[in-house]
Write a structure and sequence with these properties.
Blueprint (H helix, E strand, L loop, with lengths): L4 H7 L11 E2 L3 E2 L18 H24 L4 H34 L14
Antiparallel strand pairs: 1-2
The structure holds zinc ion (ZN).
The site of zinc ion (ZN) has 9 residues, from loops.
Membrane topology: Multi-pass membrane protein
GO molecular function: ATP binding
Subcellular location: Cell membrane
Length: 123
């Protein structure tokens, strides 16, 4: 049964079956889904996930850090110690779901990239 884009993206699962793990290691995408055999390696998400995160985090965390810096009177090095780990942690924490979400969107809307598979999708 097909899963929603958001569900498979946040859980980092296979876009077709919603069960198989999409990653081996931190960011390396599996060649084939261990559950349904979907050729996941055929789809290349490229820089898409990084661009999403640049926009999302850039438009949320940078203003938050600037407003915070204006509200408190802390030295710059303290602000760097505070916001550095927050920004790096948010980026690394969201990279896998962003990549999984991009691959799920590719599977839904550009299914021809997955080894010529045609399962009667919406496209
Ligand atoms: Zn699968």
């Amino acid at each position: 049964m097909p899963s929603s884009l958001l569900s498979v993206g946040l859980r980092c699962r296979c876009p077709r079956c919603g069960q198989g793990a999409l990653f081996k290691g931190f960011m390396r995408v599996v060649d084939r889904c261990p559950d349904c055999g979907l050729d996941v390696a055929a789809a290349d998400s490229g820089d898409g996930p990084a661009v999403f995160l640049i926009f999302i985090l850039g438009f949320t965390l940078v203003p938050a850090a600037l407003i915070f810096a204006l509200k408190v009177d802390w030295p710059l090095w303290v602000l760097l110690l505070l916001w550095g780990p927050i920004i790096i942690g948010a980026t690394l924490g969201l990279m896998r779901p962003a990549k999984a979400l991009t691959i799920a969107a590719q599977y839904r809307y550009r299914r021809d990239q997955f080894g010529g598979e045609d399962e009667g999708g919406e496209g």
